[in-house]
Amino acid sequence: MTSTLPVQPDSTDSSEIESTENHGHAAEEHGDFRMFGLATFLVADAMTFAGFFAAYLTFKAVNPLPSGAIYELELPLPILNTVLLLVSSATFHKAGQAIRNSDHARCRRWLLITASLGIAFLISQMVEYFTLPFGLTDNLYASTFFAVTGFHGLHVTLGAVMTLIVWWQARETGGRVTAQNHFPLEAAELYWHFVDGIWVVLFVILYLL
Amino acid sequence: MTVTLPPNSTAPAPKLQPTGWLRYFSFSVDHKVIGLQYLVCGFVFYLIGGALAGAIRTELASPVADFMARDVYNQVLTLHGTVMIFLWIVPVVNGAFGNYLIPFYVGARDMAFPRLNAVAFWLIPPAGLMLVASYFITGAAQSGWTAYPPLSITTPATGQIIWIVSVLLLGGSSIFGGINFIATILKLRRPGLKLMQMPMYCWAMLGTSILVVASTPVLAGTLVLLSFDIVAHTGFFNPSLGGNVVVYQHLFWFYSHPAVYIMVLPAFGLVSEILPIHARKPLFGYVTMVYSIMAIVVLGLIVWAHHMFTSGTPPWMRLFFTIATAFIAVPTGIKFFNWLATLWGGKISLNSAVLFSCGFIVNFVLGGITGVALAQVPFDIHVHDTYFVVAHFHYIVFGGSVFVIFASIYHWYPKFTGRMLNEDLGRFHCALTFIGFNFCFGPQHWLGLNGMPRRVAEYDPQFTLINQISSVGALLMAISTLPFLWNVIHSAFYGKVAGDNPWNALTPEWLTSSPPPVENWVGEAPLVKEPYAYGVPIDEIDLSATSGRDLWSSGK
């Protein structure tokens, strides 16, 4: 993941220059490491999931399901969800390619498809929630299932909102996302790939193991 | 991709930022302002936490609960632990000195993400106020700073939830700070400054920030699950609903053991800055220091279960975590001997900063020895949850971190304010703190070995005398704060003018004016390749070489 170019003083994007000047920094003094910061944050975010997964696996190892408790998961919907998210990662990548070629219309189309796939994922997840044979407080596994998938669902929601914001920012005239300066798109893309990657791990641990 | 300013250009004046004293109450993005905000805010909470400690020691001066009710005592000790850890030591050794010093040390004009930095600070006052206010509104949490279930599930819920929200905010602040430090140290270094040329505090903060980023999110996730247990009646950690309390302990200590290093690693770094300057000798064993810090970071992440030897941990786990913990003594010992070797044969000026640093070395080695003892299962099982543990970790966090915070305040106060502190008052403060501290916590080893449990308002009358000695020590520590407070307030207005570099130091923060200008330097940042090149006569220095010492001498 390459970082975006630093803001040049002769850039047409005046709002960006102004915000840089407000730091009191000379605009050219150092590079742009917002992507580095985001990646570090995603490491922290991944550790939250790691904690949840560790808790779930430990529960599984030492706390047997009490007799009479129901904890069963069906596979078809989660497999559909996995496909939706993996495809959406690809579509976001296409949007990134388009903006680098200054093709705003194409970029926005791919972004819209990505966001739609994300929202489709959320709807599908809701359908799964309401058709499951157990509820949040039924047993330990049920609670953990809802906590982990719910936390991931929050990430998907946030990612979809960010994708829509980038979709708005990538408009042809007056938008801040351009071929030269597309940090918002790049950041949302990295975040989206991260959320998809977490889903794959989640899918393996919760549904397949 | 980095372009430096031409040497003759002056930094543009920042817009939209208040100046004067008002900026300390603003959403300032200047790292020096934020550093001092952390420091003063942290010190206010130190006074609150100290008052709570005073209440605890007053209660324990007699064996019955006569000063306050037992559930009030539980609230007070919970608040004391939480305030001291999350609102005083962690924000001050990381946030305050880190924000103030790290940009200087890497030759930058500010932190990598200045606005994120301000956000990280401004999460702290509301979280702290909320935590303290919970005592007056609904009653504070009663389950100690560890918030172990099922205790935290069965004690009054409102206080516990406020505690969780407050710790989550503080954890978020800590993570934002950690991201900022990692980006600043790795990405914002002045061109030409190699990693192995950075002052030691940079390494300490890099290691600490790795721990923060890797472990704090786990605590956050765990506390969210705990809050579900409390408000939504799920059963993650509730045995009566089929949950598993030991999982909470594992997740909690996965953060909270590294939290010990989050509190002492920066202190190690600060001491490593202070000692060479005042001993006029290079820091002994720079490379071993760096590897020790990184070894502590790695080992610190895999020793957490030594807090849980009495929680039914299986034998293999006891064996593994005992050995891993014992290993930490090796890098820590390396650092300890490096400090001694730095002082050895030096021309030491015994000012307050050095005296506090030496106090730190003495206290920390005592706390370290009891720490190694506690890592041994046969011993730990006997003293677990007794006052021996209380004595041990106070030797680490107070005798270690807080002594270093005071040493650092004495050392960097001239840079913060442009004025010197009164040395006589400083030495008096140091002596009183050292005596009071050892009177307070030294006898608690004996109490613990003889079986006095911690976290209780009432105890067996046979422990009365030793508890009273401990309480007198606490009183001395409280009194020792007074000369310090007078000193920092009075000296800010009437202290001797310090000049740019009163200690004749070589590290970059001393190569600018006191207090430093906005953006740290007028013109280009200096490139200090040898921050510890002390002991060389000035006329022997090759002025054509680009290193820290000739910058210092040419700046004279």
Structure description:
The complex is a heterodimer of chains A (209) and B (556). Chain A has 209 residues and is mainly alpha-helical. Chain A has a single domain (34-63, 74-208), classed as Cytochrome c oxidase, subunit III, four-helix bundle (Four Helix Bundle (Hemerythrin (Met), subunit A)). Helix content of chain A is 70%, strand content 0%. The two termini of chain A are 32 Å apart. With 556 residues, chain B is mainly alpha-helical. Chain B has one domain (33-554): Cytochrome c oxidase-like, subunit I domain (Cytochrome C Oxidase, Chain A, Up-down Bundle). Chain B is built from 16 helices and no strands. In chain B, helix 2 packs across helix 8. The longest helix of chain B has 36 residues, at 70-105. At the A-B interface, helix 2 and helix 5 of A face helix 6, helix 7 and helix 8 of B.
The number of distinct helices of chain B, counting runs of at least 4 residues, comes to 16
Spatial gap, N to C terminus of chain A: 32 Å
SSE succession of chain B: HHHHHHHHHHHHHHHH
CATH fold descriptor of chain A: Four Helix Bundle (Hemerythrin (Met), subunit A)
Count of domain modules of chain B: 1
> What is the H-and-E element order of chain A?
HHHHHH
Beta content of chain B: under 5%
Kindly report how far apart the N and C termini of chain B lie. 33 Å
Please, what is the average pLDDT of chain A?
86
What is the radius of gyration of chain A computed over CA atoms, rounded to a whole number of angstroms? 20 Å
CATH class of chain A: Mainly Alpha
Judging from the principal axes of the Cα atoms, what is the shape of chain B? globular
Main pleated sheet of chain B: none
Quaternary form: heterodimer
Biggest chain contact: A-B, 44 and 58 residues
Helix content class of chain A: over 70%
User: What do the pLDDT scores of chain B average to?
Assistant: 90
Q: Assign the structural class of chain A, choosing from mainly alpha, mainly beta, alpha/beta, alpha+beta, or little secondary structure.
A: mainly alpha
Number of strands of chain A: 0
β-strand percent of chain A reads under 5%
